[in-house]
Each structure stands twice: as C-alpha cells, then as structure tokens.
C-alpha cells in the first residue's frame, strides 16, 4: 500500500469503528439502512472515489478504491456494497454520459447525498442478461418504459437508476441504457426482499409502467446498452472482489483473536495444528484474492481493462469469502453459530457475493471464452 492508501484505510477504520460497527448487529436484525452513514461517507470523499474532481469526485484510482471498499467491508458489507454499486453507476455516467448528463447527475452522487442503482436483471433474465424484456418504445421527445427489474441493490433508496431496456431486436444488440430518476411518473418499487445477508442494504423490484424518459436521458445511443452494462460490470467485479476481501480479512481477524484466548485441553485452541492449518490457509487465500483484485484494478487504472483478470478477481475473492467465513464459524464453534459474535452474519453476507455482478459460473464462462480467444489467436 502507498502512503495515500494507508491514510485512507486509517481514516475509514476510525470512521467505521465509531459510526458503523455499533449499529451493525441491530441493523442486520431489523434490516435498517442509515442514509446518514452513507452521507457521512460522502462527506469524507468515499462515495465518488473514482470520479474526476470536476464532478465532485475524489479522482482516486481503482486500486485506491479497492483498498477503501475492503476497509468498509470489514465492518459492513451492506455499506461497502452500497458504495460499490453507486460508484459503478457514476462510472457509467462518467464514461458514457454527455457533459450535460455528468454535470446534472454526478455531483449529488459523488457527494453521497444520493445513491445510484443499476437495473439490468429481470425475473427471466439473470445470467442471460441479453434476454431482458423491459421495453422502451420511442415516442415524441423520449421513450416509454414498461417492465420490471428484479433484485435491485438500493432499490427504493436510490435516486438515480441506470436502466437497461429493449429498444430494438431480440438479444444484446437491441438494448439501450437510460438514466431514470426516482419520482418519475410510472416508476415504482415492489416489495423489499427478505434476504439471508446484506440485510442493511435494501433490495427491491423496480417497476416501470408507461414511464416516460426524455431523450436527453439516453446513454450513448440506441443499441449500446448491453456494452454499457458489460463494461460497467468489468469494474463492478473488481469492486465486489474488494468487498469480499474485506469481509474475509475480518473473519480471519476474529478467528485468530478468538483462538488465542479460548482454552480447551489446557491450551489456547490456536495451538492445535488442525486450527493453525485452517487459519494459515485462510490467510494465504485472502492474500491471493487481494493481489488479484489489486492487479485487476491496476490494469484498469493503466488503461488496460482486462475482463479475464476482473473475473478471476471476483471469482477467487468471493469463493474465498464463502470458505473463510464458513471456516471462521467452525473455529469459534458454538458461539460462532450464535449472534453473540458477528461470524454468522459474515457467513450470511458472503453467500450472495458468489451470485451478484455475474454468478461465479458466469465468471468462469467469461474466463473460458477469453482463454479460447487467446489460444485460437496464438
Ligand atoms: N465490455 C464491452 N463489451 C462487451 C463486454 C465487455 N465486458 N462483454 C461482452 N461485450 C459485447 C460483446 O463484444 C458483444 O458485442 P459484439 O457482438 O458487437 O461483438 C456483445 O457485448 C454481446 O456479448 P456476448 O455475445 O458475449 O453476450 P452473451 O449474451 O453471450 O452474454 C455473459 C455473456 C454471460 C458474459 C453476460 O450475459 C453476463 O455477464 N451475464 C451476467 C450478467 C450479470 O452480471 N448480471 C448481474 C447484474 S448486477 S447484480
């Protein structure tokens, strides 16, 4: 880590210990999201980390952003993910938006006064995102949207929605990306999902019923929406990897600390080789994941986005989070399974990391396709 990253990490550690950690058990139980925490993160410059300063962002690299998201996730996966997805939405507007769209929508998002949400998935178009059915029909001055988006992180609390809808032929080439604001007539929200984890982060259906979106809110142009979504997910997969690394690191921290103080058979349980091997493996897998996330971010920062490495990072870091949090519960034993300790929450928060931003099976598809291309070219 460079000096700036050490400073970011230390600032976030202080903030999260004071403002997030004390609420997490309660908020997980009652499924509460606190907008003031998000806005405080924005005031500290963490809600628009990778966006240029011209639009209120911090102008940081994806490597810096990964360090910051990792630190937030040690205390709360829910807030780290909210920042991660909102950052992805900002990146879409920054990369593909017009100057007017950037100056209109970015400042409130970078400041943490508003949250962004990404609307791609539908009930019959999850992994097969190119099959989405939400329609956008051309009308005078804009488009009329109809359809329902599913499993939308920050649905209902976000103000700016990037919505992928069909303007043309079947398949990925007929999809267009739109910016839709909360409050637009015809936009409403379905039920809040009851989830295993990420319980402080609301997930809802986002429903469009004859929802008029002005022409000026289209991103790049008709038929470009699938590429917009895929390019955004390349970055989202790096940041979700960073969230997974933070969660895993916290689970390891708790496991080592507990095993050094818990005594059985007249020894701290850390002294038993069976547990030492588990923790050594955890530490090794976490570091491997962190290095992959940093490498994917470094490639992106140096203008060489690499889908394969981004998928490596997401796949490795989130599978590691599932394994490490499960082993951490095992190390703590009975208390690990109870809500007296946060380990069971960490295990619940880990699961969906293997599913979002492209399931880990989809990551393997992306990796395999890339391998095929590489081997066919050489
Ligand atoms: N960046 C830019 N363009 C991309 C791209 C990327 N990362 N990935 C694909 N494209 C382009 C392709 O180049 C292709 O364009 P051309 O036909 O002009 O060459 C087009 O998009 C279609 O690509 P492809 O044929 O690979 O699409 P598939 O329908 O086969 O889908 C997967 C590929 C499965 C990888 C894709 O649907 C996917 O990522 N699904 C998971 C969706 C997801 O992550 N959902 C989570 C939502 S957020 S929780």
TrEMBL record:
Domain Acyl-CoA dehydrogenase/oxidase C-terminal: 223-371
Alphabetically ordered keywords of this record: FAD, Flavoprotein, Oxidoreductase
InterPro entries in UniProt: Acyl-CoA_DH_CS, Acyl-CoA_Oxase/DH_mid-dom, Acyl-CoA_Oxase/DH_mid-dom_sf, AcylCo_DH-like_C, AcylCo_DH/oxidase_C, AcylCoA_DH/ox_N, AcylCoA_DH/ox_N_sf, AcylCoA_DH/oxidase_NM_dom_sf
Domain Acyl-CoA oxidase/dehydrogenase middle: 117-211
Domain Acyl-CoA dehydrogenase/oxidase N-terminal: from-to ranges: 3-112
Keyword Flavoprotein recorded: yes
Cofactor(s), by name: FAD
Family: Belongs to the acyl-CoA dehydrogenase family.
Protein name: Acyl-CoA dehydrogenase family protein
